[in-house]
Amino acid sequence: MEAMKVDSESRLLQRKQCAYESLDETFGIQKEIYKGQQYSHIYFTRLRSMRTLLYMLLPNWKPLLPVCTVLGLEEGKECIIVGTLYKHMKLKPSILDEYSKERSPVPLVQPHNFIHPDDYLILEDESGRVKIRGDAVLPSAYVTGVVAALHGKETGDGSFLVEDVLEAGLPHQVERPIISGEDKYVVFVSGLSVGGSSSNPLQYQLFVDHITGHLGDEKEQSIAAEIVQVVIAGNSVEMHHGLLNGQSLGMKELNRMSESIKELDILLSQIAAGIPVDIMPGPDDPANFALPQQPLHRCLFRGSSAYNTFRSCTNPHSFTLDGIRFLGTSGQNIDDLEKYSDAKDKLEFMERTLRWRHLAPTAPNTLGCYPFTDRDPFFIETCPHVYFIGNQEKYETRVTKGTEGQIVRHICIPRFSETGVAVVLNLRNLECHTLSFKIEFDTELEEEMKNRKNAHD
User: Fold this and answer.
1) Phi-psi region of 208 (alpha: psi -120 to 50; beta: other; left: phi over 0)
2) How many angstroms separate the CA atoms of 310 and 233, rounded?
3) How many Å apart are CA 43 and CA 343, to the nearest integer?
4) Among 80, 172, 176, 389, which has the minimal tally of Cβ within 10 Å of its Cβ?
5) First vs last Cα of the chain: how many Å apart?
6) CA 29, CA 42: separation in Å to the nearest integer?
7) Mean pLDDT value of segment 420-441
8) Residue 307, pLDDT score
9) Can you state the angle between helices 332-340 and 346-355, rounded to 10 degrees?
């Protein structure tokens, strides 16, 4: 690991290290073969796994009530049913709506959220489906794909009146190791968008120089030496999508597309020379679209991939540092939840995914995912200590505590190209703070320079 030199006469600062273990195997697509299978398999696998879990919780929740299937419901008889929720949405876009938009001057729906007061829920299991009513389960708080246990009774109109809801809750959490007296930091950054219209090379270089210890006095360099990991959570480059029109590209167009990747590789090489760095793909990166996104190919990073500290990872991404478990995405799962449900902030959406024990409940309904046949990789079996999402509008963080003593640090990582903000986490106590590298330009001076140029011309 690279040692940072403070000055010619003082000691060398040795960068701290920690034990790293990748847990991305579950998100890898290795032996799966696509044979035209439908998405019913992944829904069935999800229901089977979650139902087994919920059945174990029922004796402590409603021990005296019988458990029924949808087909076995009897009018007026209280019981518990377990199944997958489907949310009927009046404003949910369809391909027919997209087709009609081309012929309509006014959009049919608002693009940011598709919630409507007339939305309602349906619960489905292998035997059938039934419409859900009651104030105990609000359609605005749920999405299609969530598995839950409902206590209620069938009414005369054939619907199921819900009196109480049981969610799976936070999964078991491995006890967090005690790190006494020694600070070690993890730096999170996302939305670099290198090569984009809003990118600022100076902003990137300030970030790299700061974390690698090439800026500041001895005190600041001592703090930089305590950074043990950098995580880049998606959207690292901005491709020129105007070139991707389905036609063959010439050498000039290919060079334009590769410029941003080459620039990113230079930045990653500077980081990887001194700090372990994980890079995750995002929705705008040159990777597969459907979740789980597979690692960006190492051939894209000719310089940085030569370092053993460089890791190209999946999205979602899971790993441990000194026994502390991390789980995160590039933001697609939470952004999709925001379109089809309601919450006070992004952190609440994150908390819901942990309570539902599913990282991406809207996949495959409204969020693209691979059609797995015998497993659901988004099922959360172990509760993380740190749960992060990238490419958000602003920085937010909160600690969630579970009923069994689980403690989870939630982190929303803002887009760096727009905010200039990176997030720093202390492994010792899971406390967070931000580093800002935003460069503000003097608009008046810029305007004066533009006027002088125009006058000269």
Assistant:
1) alpha
2) 14
3) 25
4) 172
5) 53
6) 14
7) 92
8) 96
9) 100
Instruction: Give the residues across from 230 on adjacent strands.
Output: 187, 277
Mean pLDDT of 328-351: 96
Torsion of CA 263, 264, 270, 272, to 10 degrees: -150
CB-CB neighbours of 220 under 10 Å: 12
Q: How many helices (H) and strands (E) does the chain have?
A: 9, 20
Q: Confirm if 177 and 219 have CB atoms less than 8 A apart.
A: no
Strand residues in 17-146 grouped as ranges (E):
20-22, 67-68, 78-88, 120-124, 129-133
Q: What single letter denotes the amino acid at residue 449?
A: M
Encode pLDDT of 97-113 as tens digits: 666 655 555 555 455 78
3-state secondary structure of 168: coil
Mean pLDDT for the stretch of residues 363-382: 94
- pTM here is 0.90
Q: How far apart are CA 44 and CA 46, in angstroms?
A: 5
Inter-residue contact 401 to 175 (CB < 8 Å): no
Question: Side chain identity at 74, as an amino acid letter?
Answer: E
Amino acid 111: pLDDT: 54
**Whole-angstrom distance, CA of residue 281 vs CA of residue 317:** 10
- Cβ atoms 362, 337 nearer than 8 A: yes
Q: What is the mean pLDDT of residues 112-130?
A: 93
Tell which wins on pLDDT, 255 or 453. 255
Task: Check: CB of residue 268 under 8 Å from CB of residue 277.
Answer: yes
Looking at residue 97, its pLDDT comes to: 64
Phi, psi angle pair for 232, to nearest 5°: -105, 110
In this structure, is the dihedral angle defined by the CA atoms of residues 156, 157, 163 and 164, taken in order, positive or negative?
A: positive
- 391's tokens: 């490419």
Say if CB 424 and CB 185 are below 8 A apart: yes
Closest CA to 424 of 436, 438, 435: 435
Q: CA 29, CA 33: separation in Å to the nearest integer?
A: 9
pLDDT band at 453 (very low <50, low <70, confident <90, very high): very low
The pair of structure tokens assigned to 166 is 């049981």
Tokens linked to 136: 């105990």
297-307 mean pLDDT? 94
Kindly report, residue by residue over 221-280, the tens digit of the pLDDT.
999 999 999 999 999 998 765 555 555 666 666 666 788 899 999 999 999 999 999 999
State the number of CA atoms in the 13 A half-sphere of 247 facing the CB.
7
Whether 294 contacts 244, CB under 8 Å: no
Written as six digits, the tokens of 231 are 């995580």
